[in-house]
Write a structure and sequence with these properties.
Radius of gyration: 20 Å
Structural class: alpha/beta
CATH superfamily of the largest domain: FAD/NAD(P)-binding domain
Number of domains: 2
Strand order of the largest sheet: 3-2-1-7-18
Strand content: 25-35%
CATH class of the largest domain: Alpha Beta
CATH architecture of the largest domain: 3-Layer(bba) Sandwich
Distance between the termini: 5 Å
Shape: globular
Order of helices and strands: EHEHEEEEEEHEHEEEEEEHEEEH
Helix content: 10-25%
CATH topology of the largest domain: FAD/NAD(P)-binding domain
Bound molecules: flavin-adenine dinucleotide
Largest sheet: 5 strands, parallel
Number of helices: 6
């Protein structure tokens, strides 16, 4: 059977992993941190803990339980999911994982840059997917907005196609290879009328750009939706009752899907997504 790759080790991701691995699938979980549970002091409304439990302890127990059943953990950052010759290619800071099915359980965090008219230029010079849109900017000047590993990875994708690429950290300290071309000035707004023309920095200086690729923080549900062409429901990934997205083989669970943002709901979503992903793998391997 091909691998199931799960993005996220929160209650949704771990629950999906438990159901899939116990059904016989080889499972890998990619996660950069503990997600929402790592920020949760005390949980008093989850079944079975009469005195409550800390988020960190619940997270650690879930990870140990999955590890004991043979789930492989990749501690790293996800950059994107692409369509491969034989399934999906999950691109991470630790390399590429090949998957027959993917469960997205990456929580809700979205690190959108606070640039007031950014949304006005979406699709008219502002993109969220280097692999999708780099081609349109051959021979032109583009920027990547971001300051971490995700921005550096989008830069590398663009550089395969576009000569002139600069990373705009928007006032933040760069957390990538210092050899990469970067501009740390804070962006006040974007300029242009019909199409993007450039950026206006705080202080009044300007720079021309034909395209800007947003890669702030880490790739989350919003960026994955843009990259893969996943249908959305508001700011969430749209799924059916089987937690299947519009792309066969890609499922979503937990806070990145509509519904209550609670552990019990995330665990339930994970159970459904893991079970359905397992069925998909059995039918397609
Ligand atoms: C302060 C606080 C208190 C809360 N208290 C309660 C409570 O008392 N009871 C309750 O039921 N719920 C509570 N919640 C909500 C609950 O924690 C969430 O609903 C639940 O954790 C959602 O689970 P999830 O698996 O969908 O996402 P998360 O638990 O957020 O997990 C997301 C996972 O995705 C990973 N990830 C995301 N992007 C990437 C990337 N690019 N690369 C690699 N990994 C990535 C993260 O590292 C993480 O492992 C609280 C939340 C917060 C923030």
């Amino acid at each position: 059977m091909k691998d199931l790759v799960i993005i996220g080790q929160g209650p949704a991701g771990i629950s999906a992993a438990l159901y899939a691995v116990r059904g016989g699938a080889p499972v890998a979980v990619v996660a950069k941190d503990g997600g929402a549970l790592a920020k949760t002091e005390l949980i008093q409304n989850y079944y079975g803990f009469e005195n409550g439990i800390s988020g960190k302890e619940l997270l650690a127990r879930g990870v140990r339980q999955a590890e004991n059943l043979g789930v492989r953990f990749v501690r790293g950052e996800l950059f994107g999911v692409e369509f491969g010759a034989d399934g999906f290619e999950v691109k991470t800071s630790e390399g590429t994982l090949h998957a027959g099915a993917v469960v997205i359980a990456c929580g809700t965090v979205r690190n959108a840059p606070a640039i007031k008219n950014l949304a006005d230029f979406e699709g008219r010079g502002v993109s969220y997917c280097a692999i999708c849109d780099a081609f349109f900017y051959r021979g032109r000047k583009v920027g990547v907005i971001g300051s971490g590993a995700y921005a550096a990875s989008e830069y590398a994708v663009l550089k395969n196609v576009v000569e002139d690429v600069t990373i705009l950290t928007n006032g933040e300290a760069p957390r990538f290879d210092p050899a990469l071309p970067c501009d740390t000035r804070k962006i006040a707004s974007l300029t242009g009328s019909e199409l993007l023309q450039g950026v206006l920095f705080e202080g009044g200086e300007r720079a021309e750009y034909d395209g800007l690729f947003v890669a702030c923080g880490s790739a989350g549900a919003f960026e994955l939706s843009k990259k893969l062409g996943l249908e959305t429901d508001g700011n969430k990934i749209a799924t059916d009752e089987k937690r299947a997205t519009n792309i066969p083989g890609i499922f979503a669970a937990g806070d990145c899907v509509k519904g209550m943002q609670q552990i019990a709901k995330a665990v339930c979503d994970g159970m459904i997504a893991g079970t359905e992903a397992l069925k998909f793998l059995k039918a397609n391997s």
